[in-house]
Amino acid sequence: MIELNKDNFDAEVREVQGPVLVDFWSPKCDPCMALLPSVEQLAVELEGKVKFCKVNALENRRLCIKEKVLGLPTIQIYNHGEKVVELTKDDATEANIRAELAKF
Amino acid sequence: MANYQYDLVIVGGGPGGMAAAIYGARSKISTVVIEKNRPGGQIATTEEWENYPGVPHTSGPEEMKGWVKHAEKFGAEFVKDEIVNIIDKGDTKVVVGKQHTFEAKVVVVSVGAEPRVLGVPGEREFRGKGVSYCATCDADFFTELDVVVVGSGDQAIEEGMYLTKFAESVTVIVLHDEGTLDCTPVLKERAFHNPKMKWVWNSTVNAIKGDGIVDTVEVKNIKTGQVSSLEANGVFFFVGMVPQTGWLKDIIALDNRGYIIANELCETNVDGIYAVGDARQKFLRQVVTAAADGAIAATAAEKFIHEEEGFREMVLDQEIPVVVSFWNPTKPATMDLNTRLEAMMEAYKGQVKFVKIDTYRNLRISRKCDVKDIPTVVFYNKGAMVDRIDVNVEVEAVEAKVKALLS
Q1: Taking chain A (104 residues) in consecutive chunks of 10 residues, what is each chunk's mean pLDDT?
Q2: pTM score over 0.95
Q3: Residue A32 catalytic?
Q4: Range of B389's domain?
Q5: I need a surface site. Which of A35, B39, B173, B364 has the fewest CB within 10 A?
Q6: Is residue A62 helix, strand or coil?
Q7: What does the radius of gyration of chain A's CA atoms come to, in whole angstroms?
Q8: A29 an active-site residue?
């Protein structure tokens, strides 16, 4: 998974054709740490079909606020540079992510 | 067909489930903990933890990693899955997950509770956009910003003080009159001395507003009805918990608030299903009480398995009739009776089996056979109770019934 920060977010997400998943997480967020292995597994499964990125919120607070992410875990899915899905908190589950990605 | 078979299946990996795993695995019964997220439970979302005996100060996530290791050390296994049903098949329970199925001799339900949603306008809309129920998850976002905490119990005040390490100010919305909080006095005193903590009394949240992310919290004074606005980017709700027992309502008995009804041994109304921790009816919901439940349930479960298996083997599965004599060492008369019964039964060797059961060490079986006092003699044939003599047991009467069974 590609690590995002304020310098590469647009290039890696907004300027990309096709689906991109962004996982906003923090090492201090227990639900995020529980979810992350499933997302990493999905990244392997869907390699070549969906691009997987992650944002360490602890180190990229300004970027999170700019992207209007103020709660973790949050999963955003972009398609052709447009944000099409956002799953946050209890909705950010492996099953929901799979269901959303299956639509592409 | 079950994917997995265990003696003890524990549903939920919070402190109650983990303590049950430690006690179960250490008593050498095969044990698995099934957790839909990461093991740890609610306490793993608390950074400041200072009321576990012998542990003056620790962080929830760190401490719980140690509990997992402790359970694994004795051989407990951990599986990630979400359980959706438990099917009672008498001797076994089938625990159905979204991904796997587990066959268990005993199930410990340790499903815990989750934060209560107040349901005010904007609460759902701004979840993850400023509305939060988890300070450790989201505190960093609010560095040098203003936040609101709703509630005044232990959790609200503890988490509120944790937030002051990040936020510029933490305004607590309290339902009660000035100076009254629901939390313990030691927390109250500390909170009142914290310069970053501010207080709004006799009030509740009316609505949460913002443009994409939270910027305003509308507060209503319940005495005057007056509504005022607070500028804030974060709203943390700590207004109690609800047990995660919706899926259990047709499986075990719940009270009208959804808490599992269980007795002192953590037994539910279904034989072989135990309940521990925050999801059951109890006076105090803390890690220390959840852990105590776990220890009790696992010990009861271990006895359950051994008693049930022993009884099945010695009594229920026998091809010939069985005479069961209930006794215990505190009543010498029952020991004397056993000696005389044994002598009488010699004549029927090979035709009728004689079994002695100590009621002290076999509480379950004694209860199952409805033994109210001893001596009591119960007659089994092909796995079913066919006759009994309560209290006034004479050797002659037992022999008469043995003869009747053989005729």
Answers
A1: 95 95 93 93 95 96 92 96 94 94 90
A2: no
A3: yes
A4: 318-406
A5: B364
A6: helix
A7: 12
A8: yes
